Every structure is written in structure tokens, then in C-alpha cells.
């Protein structure tokens, strides 16, 4: 029998994974600028990196933030600075050379996307909330259960954003539209800080 807490976790994982945030804005920009195929490592890095983050947060990092609260503020400041830098890179992304997926620029790699989770304010908020609300006693089994739910839901939901970007790709063959899109994505990425911080 499925418990209410499990249904709540499913809902939280879906809503928090599919709503706009730094990962989703960057995936849409990557899909639009580099194509879906070249964005797959970025998608996998987000999904796997965030799942690993939930496990590590659940088994230990929450204790560090409780023991030394300023460490969480330091994390927020570093995260915000990094997101502003990424927004600048998105704003200045080069034009796609062709519509078939080749481009002169480089999308985020698997490892870059996985490591990005550690400076993503929305990812921290999601992980801390998931552990605090849905892991109960924070036993390893409970933490692994929460991570498994996010692992199953996160990849298809973030993939939606990369696919949306792919569909925008043909529209962005015009240099002016591409610049407007990239600057718009950069502004939205910085704007996501207001919600996450």
C-alpha cells in the first residue's frame, strides 16, 4: 500500500524537478544552442549528480549546517556568484553552426553538470527539504529511498526542458533571435536566484 508520505514525496520530486530553476534554464539553453544529442551528458549529470547530492546531504552534510550555520550562508554566496557567471556565459553563447546538432561552442559536460549541483541554490533547497520532510529518521535506508525517487523522476523532467530547447533551435537560426533568447535565459537564470536564495 502506497503511503501518503510516499505520494507526497512523489509530488514534491515532480514539482521541484520540473519547475524553472538554474538546471532547467541551462538545459533549455543548451538544447537550443547545441541540440538534444549534445545536451544528453548535461542531462545525465544533473540527474545523477543531484541523486548523489541527496544521499550525501542526507547522511552527513545536514549535520555540518546545523553545527555551523554560517557555512550555509557561505554556500549561498558562492552559489550566487557562480550562477551569475554561468548566466553571462549563456548570454554570450555562440550561434549554432547548423541545425543538426553541430556548433562551435561546447555544452556542459556530465561532470560539470554533476558538480554544478553543489553550487545550485535550488538543488540545495530541494535536497534539504526532501531529507528534512520525507526521510523521517534520516536512516540510510530512508535517505536512499528519497534519493531513488528523485533519481527516477529527475531525468525525464529535466529532459523536458532540453527537448523544449531543441524545438527552439530552428527558430534561433536568426542571429538576433538567438541573442534575445540567450540573454532572456541568462536573465531568467539570475532571476531564479531570487526564488532559491
Please tell me about this protein's structure.
The chain is an all-alpha fold and 197 residues long. The chain has one domain (25-93, 105-196). The protein contains eight helices and no strands. It has helices at residues 4-18, 22-34, 36-67, 70-91, 110-116, 121-134, 140-168, 175-196. The chain starts with a helix and ends with a helix. Mean pLDDT is 83; it is low at 98-103.
What topology does this entry show?
Blueprint: H1 4-18, H2 22-34, H3 36-67, H4 70-91, H5 110-116, H6 121-134, H7 140-168, H8 175-196
Helix pairs in contact: 1-7, 2-3, 2-7, 2-8, 3-5, 3-6, 3-7, 4-8
Keywords:
single chain, 197 residues, mainly alpha, 8 helices
Order of helices and strands: HHHHHHHH
Supply the number of structural domains: 1
Compute the number of strand runs. 0
The whole-angstrom Rg is 17 Å
Largest β sheet strand count, sense and barrel closure = none
| Strand proportion | under 5%
Q: Please count the helical segments.
A: 8
Amino acid at each position: 500500500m502506497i503511503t501518503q508520505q510516499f505520494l507526497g514525496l512523489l509530488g514534491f520530486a515532480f514539482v521541484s524537478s520540473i519547475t524553472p530553476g538554474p538546471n532547467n534554464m541551462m538545459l533549455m539553453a543548451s538544447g537550443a544552442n547545441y541540440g538534444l544529442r549534445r545536451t544528453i551528458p548535461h542531462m545525465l549529470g544533473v540527474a545523477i549528480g543531484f541523486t548523489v547530492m541527496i544521499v550525501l546531504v542526507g547522511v552527513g552534510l545536514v549535520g555540518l549546517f546545523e553545527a555551523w550555520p554560517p557555512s550555509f550562508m557561505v554556500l549561498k554566496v558562492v552559489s550566487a556568484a557562480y550562477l551569475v557567471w554561468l548566466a553571462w556565459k549563456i548570454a554570450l553563447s555562440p550561434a549554432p553552426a547548423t541545425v543538426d546538432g553541430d556548433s562551435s561552442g561546447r555544452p556542459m559536460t556530465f561532470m560539470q553538470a554533476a558538480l554544478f549541483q553543489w553550487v545550485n541554490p535550488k538543488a540545495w533547497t530541494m535536497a534539504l527539504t526532501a531529507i528534512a520532510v520525507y526521510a523521517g529518521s534520516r536512516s540510510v535506508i530512508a535517505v536512499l529511498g528519497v534519493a531513488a525517487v528523485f533519481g527516477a523522476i529527475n531525468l525525464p523532467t529535466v529532459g523536458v526542458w532540453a527537448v523544449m530547447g531543441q524545438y527552439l533551435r530552428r527558430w534561433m537560426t536568426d542571429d538576433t533571435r538567438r541573442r534575445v533568447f540567450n540573454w532572456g535565459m541568462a536573465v531568467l537564470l539570475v532571476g531564479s536566484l531570487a526564488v532559491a536564495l
